[in-house]
Amino acid sequence: MNDLRAQLSPGWSGVNIAITVVLFLIAWPLALLMVGYIVWGQRIGLDFARPETISHVGRRLSGAWRAGTGSWSRDATLSTGTPTDVRMNETRASEAGSDASDATLRAERDALARERVAFEKERREWRESREPLDS
């Protein structure tokens, strides 16, 4: 007899298909989440047959959320990632000449350097969190 836990692993098993059909009958958005789990669950490291992966994926998602929203509170940025004071400097630079445009470039380079450091930190934390799953 097949083990139910093994059939809950990501993939097109009979149990996963039955759960998906029932979820489509109850609430189709949940069924779409189940289809996503079946297709991409292995790639993101989520496996309902191993409950410890659920908390691991939750920690990764919360870390990514904190990293994304943390940058909102540090400084007001535009959607391009350029601080708003740099945008103001750009308008002043067109009026003041090359000295102001040099200051703008320096400010943008500083902002890029801060973003690069934050990205490298996130990448390092992600790799460290992946090591237990890879072994």
**Sheet with most strands:** none
The ordered H/E elements are HHHHHH
Mass-distribution shape: elongated
Can you tell me the number of structural domains? Answer: 2
* Class based on secondary structure composition and strand pairing: mainly alpha
Count the DSSP helices.
Answer: 6
Structural summary, described in words:
By secondary structure, the protein is mainly α. The chain has 2 domains: 49 residues, no CATH class; 85 residues. The protein is 79% helix and 0% strand. The chain is built from 6 helices and no strands. Helix 4 packs antiparallel against helix 6. It is elongated, with a radius of gyration of 23 Å. The protein starts with a helix and ends with a helix.
Descriptors:
6 helices; mainly alpha; elongated; single chain; 135 residues
Brief summary of the model shown:
The chain is 79% helix and 0% strand.
Can you lay out the helices and strands and say which pair or pack?
Elements: H1 4-7, H2 14-26, H3 28-44, H4 52-74, H5 84-96, H6 98-134
Helix pairs in contact: 2-3, 4-6, 5-6
